[in-house]
Amino acid sequence: MRRYAILSGLLAAVYVALSVVVATGSLHRFDLSVSHAVAMLYRPGLLPLFRGLALLGGLELTLLAAVLPLASLVETAYKHNIVQPGPPRSIAHPDGPSLTLLFEDPTGSGWSFPSGHMTRAVVVYGLLAFVIQRLGGPGRLRQWAVPLAIAVVLLEAFDRLYLEVHWESDVLGGILLGATFLAAAIAWLEWSEARAE
User: What is the 3-state secondary structure (H, E, C) of 17-62?
Assistant: First the structure.
């Protein structure tokens, strides 16, 4: 931990030093040289790819990262307020490795509605499919993005039931909650894109 604190301090000092150099204009010639060199590499056919890459770091998509924690927060609030005990441990099978196991009640008496795995799966794989569908060029990946996302979600749903760690209603609740946040995230992306145009 101390090592990372020192590294953080060093990086902050380097950042401040670079900021001072940039503020004096000392790097302007270097910036122009790099800009001209990169301009020589430009190919119009690669524009969709690089627009997609830009979206990955853009404000609109990075703000969407808040969707997953927000969905998890709502899922947790529901779990603590809706009385729905999960399947008894006597019938449940060992669940897959997950950080969520760190937060579970060791007695197994926690509430299970909605399924957090399902909520997260719908949001993450749904958003991934949307981005690929929207930004991918012609090809099979774009064509199969949504069906593959649906397949992953259905496999996860079957997994929750197969391992008997959730009831069907938990799985459906997780799908619906995830779909709610997925739709909100897609609406945000659509709105951001329309505003940019």
Answer: HHHHHHHCCCCHHHHHHHHHHHHCCCCHHHHHHHHHHHHHHCHHHH
Residue 145's pLDDT band (boundaries 50, 70, 90)?
A: very high
> Residue 190: left (phi > 0), alpha (psi -120 to 50), or beta?
alpha
How does pLDDT run across 69-115, given as a tens digit for each residue? 888 888 888 888 777 777 877 767 666 665 555 556 555 556 788 88
Among candidate residues 82, 182, 72, 62, the one with its CA nearest the CA of residue 133: 182
- Count the residues in the chain: 197
Confidence bin at 151 (pLDDT 50/70/90): very high
Residues 6+ apart with CB under 8 A from 72: 116, 119, 120
Residue 56 has pLDDT above 50, yes or no: no
Paired with 111 in beta bridges are: 85
Strand partners, 85: 111
